[in-house]
Every structure is written in structure tokens, then in C-alpha cells.
């Protein structure tokens, strides 16, 4: 793979205590990067993955001095830090989500002043205009569908503003920014309970709980006919690194285009678990848009690649990991 900077240069990953950031730090280290700085606001014991070879730091990146300390000497920055979660979180924490604008702003200023050569920003499919996502049989979203702007309230507005900030830091200050619009990412080592979990992990947890309790029923948010595409973490990491190394300056979808209903997602998990559950639909739960899919025409044209890991395969690995986490937690509680 072409690299954004050579492997002996310092690379900063923010949000490194979280799902994608933790995987990215591991990926860079395994790939021979010798100087990786990993930063997150969470205490070290709460990081999802932590690598002793990295320069691990606990910093609140809403603060400009913390961003300057994080960015010092960094040739490349992957800015993944954000206060975010699935629909259950972003629908009820709009102000908190929007305050991530402080992270975006201060990280860009710090990287500009530190002479950073490449800056990656993780935007989201939540930037897309609401009126283009009202039908479950959605036309896949192409990059130009973000405008005229009417993104997801709170979280989506912050992402769209920060994308725009990246563009103007590139145009006005010469900071080489790259922006990905991630579509719902899932996999092991992610959030699976506590309120920030997204549908793939939540459904795994609920199926495992139902199986263990012998209850044989499951609560699904909405009517189950809403559609999404879900991207496995390995595709996300590969696309992220490819985009940073590329000359693509406009925001790019990094997402799967395997569209499924939430009912189909539940069926996939039931098949993995070897169980069939009675479904209860909670219609007043957070639902988000009716349908969302990624149009991968531009990424194929620009990178000659698009995410391709099948949902059935990624969910198998995710289910096994969540199953083991739940078993370990239960064992810990019993001891
Ligand atoms: P995550 O919540 O697992 O990780 C984000 C990390 O940022 C957390 O560990 C959190 O503690 C950290 N953070 C929050 N505020 C901070 C602060 N003030 N200073 C330092 N660290 C702070 O989320 P993720 O799934 O790994 O997402 C990573 C990025 O990708 C985020 O920017 C997110 O908005 C974006 N994204 C993710 C998805 C997805 O489906 N996972 C989809 C679209 C976009
Ligand atoms: N979280 C969750 N938990 N969602 C459920 C559940 C459940 O138990 N049951 C059904 N759903 C439904 C939700 O109602 C929603 O319609 C759909 O599954 C997807 O929910 P999420 O996975 O929580 O989020 P999303 O796809 O609407 O948005 C996510 O992806 C964006 C990128 O594509 C969010 O995580 C955003 O933060 C992210 O940017």
C-alpha cells in the first residue's frame, strides 16, 4: 500500500481508546510504523485496546494546549476523537455531539502549526440530507447528496461543519486534509452496551441475552423495515489509510453498499446463534433515517477499491467476540 508518510515518522491517532482508533493503532504498529502516538480522553483502563509500543496519552482534545501537545512532531494525524454513538446516543445528546467541533477546530489549528503533512478527518454518513433518506428503498447516497444541507440534527451538523473546516484549512493554510464519510462501522473491540452501541452490536447482545435466558424474544427499535449498510472494521481501516495516502481532497464515502433491513440483520444474527426469536417492535425508540446506503462509484473511481466484506462474515466474528465478552463479564461477576 502507498503510505501517507514513511514508517519512521510520527503518526498521531486521536480517539485511540475507542473502537476504530484502537484498531488503527494496532494496524499501524503491526505494519511497521515505529512512532505512533495514541490519544484519548478516557482513563487508560477504559481504552478498548492499548498497545505498550505506542506513546499513549490521556488528553482532553477539546482544549487547544492538549491538541498542541498531541500534534507535536506529528507528520500525519488521524483525527477520530468525537463524542458519539449509535441512534440511542446521538438523538439524546445533540449538544455533546456538537461540542466535538472543539476537537475538530483545535486539532486542525494544532496540526497546521506543527507542520503536519497529512490530516485525516472521520466524518459520517450522518452529513447526508434528510430528504434523500426518507424511503427504505433508498437510492444510495453519493457524495454530492450532502448539499443543499439538512444533515442529522446535532451530530451531523458538527460533522458537516468540520468537513468544511478541513476544506478551508487546506485551501487557505495548505494543510493536506482528507475526509472520509464512514457508514455504520462494526466489528470486535467496539461498543456493545451502555447506550452508545449501534445496531449490529446491540442486536448481537440482545440475541445472546435471549438465548442465555431461554426467553426467546427480542426487542427491535422501529418496525424493522428501515434499511442500512454496515461496514466491517477491516474495510474501514484499509479505506482510511488508502484515502490519507491518496490525492483525493473531496469527502469520500467509505461504507459498504450491501443494503439490508434491520429485520434482515436480526435474521443474520439469529442464524449465527442457531435460534429463532419472537420479535417485538418498539416504535417510539430512536430510529434515525428510514433508509441509508453508500454509493461507491466515486471511491471505486478514485481509489480503485471499495469495501467488500460480506455482512454475514463480519457479523460472525463480531457475534463471537461479544459472546466472549458477555461470558467473561458474567464469570467475573460470579467470582
Ligand atoms: P468511539 O466512541 O469508539 O471512539 C471515539 C473516541 O474518542 C472515544 O474513545 C472517546 O473517548 C474519544 N474522545 C471523545 N471526546 C474526546 C476528547 N475531548 N478528547 C480526546 N478523546 C475524546 O467511536 P468510533 O466508532 O471509534 O468512531 C471514531 C470516529 O469515526 C468518530 O469521529 C466518529 O464520529 C466517526 N464515525 C464512526 C462511525 C461508526 O459507525 N463507528 C460512523 C461514522 C463516523
Ligand atoms: N442502536 C440500536 N440499538 N439501533 C437499533 C436497535 C437497537 O437495539 N434495534 C433496531 N435499531 C435500529 C435503529 O432504530 C436504527 O433505525 C437502525 O437500527 C440503525 O441504528 P444505529 O446503528 O444505532 O445508527 P444509524 O445507522 O442510524 O447511525 C449510525 O451510523 C452513522 C454512520 O452511518 C450512528 O452511529 C451515527 O453516529 C453514525 O455516524
Automatic annotation (TrEMBL):
Gene3D superfamilies: NAD(P)-binding Rossmann-like Domain (3.40.50.720), UDP-galactose 4-epimerase, domain 1 (3.90.25.10). The keyword NAD applies. The keyword Protein biosynthesis does not apply. It comes from the Bacteria. Residues 11-255 form the NAD-dependent epimerase/dehydratase domain. Keywords: NAD. This is Nucleoside-diphosphate-sugar epimerase. It comes from Tistlia consotensis USBA 355.
